[in-house]
Amino acid sequence: MRHPLPRRSGKGLARGIPTLLSVASAFVLWEAYVRLSGISALVLPPPSRVLDQIVQNRALLWDNTLPTLHATFAGFALSLSVAFTLSVVLDFLPRLRKALFPIFVISQTLPLVAIAPLVVLWFGFELTPKVLLVALVTFFPMLVALVDGYASTDPDIEALMRSMGATRGQVFRAARFPSAMPYFFAGLRISITYAVVAAIFAEYVGARAGLGIVILNAKNSFRPDLMLAAVVISSLLTLALFGAAALLQRIVLRWRNPEGRA
Amino acid sequence: MSYLSLQDVSLSLGDTAILDRVSMSLDKGEFVSVLGPSGAGKSTILRVLTGSLAAQSGTITCAGQPLARRNDRFAFMPQRDALLPWRRVIDNLTLGLEVQGMTRKAARARVMPHLAEFGLDGFERHYPAELSGGMRQRAALLRTVVQERAVQLLDEPFGALDALTRLQMQRWFEQRWQDARWTTLLITHDVREAVALSDRIYVLSRRPARVIADIPVPLPRPRLARAPCAKAHALEAQILDILLHQTGE
């Protein structure tokens, strides 16, 4: 405990080593299998070739990552603002919550595979259908996280605030909303990964640009190496967004592990 | 004329009678404890006073006025400290004042001079998770008294502490109370605590709660700084006798 800072960062590095090793050894096994078995690169390209495709097509991949990122953020922003507004309304009107919740559950039972082509058919090949699909997929987890989070408020804290003469609005701002933050971030980390997948799928069904389109075109021209290159990019994109959500959580919820306080 | 008075207050929740014609009174500056078997409805009395439960019959008056359901007479300290974990200590201490509409700056100015006497000096920027149990309890108490309400309602404030910390807190609290003379209603199941701190003790029956004894404690203060005297022991024995008789042992 004499050197808490180096120990902390050392621990962080040490935690990452097993992950890096397992990922690296999976790629080595994959590469070795492709080379030793003599399987055609048209069926299973080796990871070295996928990496090579990423480098060669970096301009194409970059140009198509931006629309995907755009759709993801726009859809997520829409779903977050609707989920938050609705969660506040439902928190103040519990009867409405009982009436509307089944509808939200039903919205989650719709298979994306069937809904996506319909939404594209109705709203065209531009941004709108992607935004709507991302919002549809991420809205419900965020709403449930917030509603459950409000309900998790310590009843002692609410009783205390009422004894102070607090209004319903004051109780919400000072107690119910902060109580929901850990739930909100749990929902955020899950939803952000759904969001990227939904955006790519929406593009795959119909779009002018985006990682989904790269994957579709590569599939149609029998280029599994380029498909996998786009998959790697989408995966890195998801990881980056997940990491950003986790970082934001650490900052906002620093009261939960205050030892690391500034 | 007593400052706070409850007359024949009764309350049932569903078919369960909780309070049965409970009558109590407190003078200004008086320290009164309510003792009773666990589950007797001690905390229910506080919930009626703070307005989270409504009594079905009886009258409550404070300073001669009947009590409105939403009132600003009482400052309440719940059993567990109920500090808001996402607020720094200073922001927890100002919570009651901010709820009343005071600006954050004015509320802090009111709280800051008390930090030292409550042993929280230098911890105002910490989060509650960083405090010891005794410090959390002192913070909860400061949050209560800084509201400057007429009556302090304390619901087993030291119940969750370990024995040593509890004794330290009781000693410290007795000193603070001797300086400030808050009108205080303390709910407890600890006979020794009640005898050590109170001017008067109400003993409640098992549920439905009735007042079965009203015992004055005419012992000199401070009581906890010295060894308990024979008179205190006799009072404790007398009250324990009443309580044990109630629980049928």
Question: How does this structure look, described?
Answer:
Helix content of chain A is 83%, strand content 0%. With 262 residues, chain A is an all-alpha fold. Chain A has one domain: Orthogonal Bundle (MetI-like fold), CATH 1.10.3720.10. The N terminus of chain A is likely disordered. Chain B folds into two domains: 166 residues, 3-Layer(aba) Sandwich (Rossmann fold), CATH 3.40.50; 67 residues. In chain B, a hairpin with a 6-residue loop joins strand 9 and strand 10. Chain B is built from eight helices and ten strands. Helices cover 33% and strands 24% of the residues of chain B. By secondary structure, chain B is of the alpha/beta class. In chain B, helix 7 crosses helix 8. In chain B, the strands form two sheets. Chain B has a six-stranded mixed beta sheet, sandwiched between helices. A four-stranded antiparallel beta sheet of chain B has the order 2-1-4-5, covered by helices on one side. Chain B starts with a strand and ends with a helix.
The stretches of 5 or more residues of chain B where confidence is low (pLDDT under 50) are none
Write down the overall geometry of chain A. Answer: globular
* Number of alpha- plus pi-helical segments of chain B: 8
CATH class of chain A: Mainly Alpha
Could you tell me how far the N terminus lies from the C terminus of chain B, measured between alpha carbons in angstroms? 38 Å
Strand content of chain B: 15-25%
* Oligomeric state: heterodimer
Main pleated sheet of chain B: 6 strands, mixed
Major pleated sheet of chain A: none
What is the SS-derived class of chain A? mainly alpha
Largest interface: A-B, 22 and 27 residues
- What number of structural domains do the residues of chain B give? 2
Query: Which percent band covers the strand fraction of chain A?
Result: under 5%
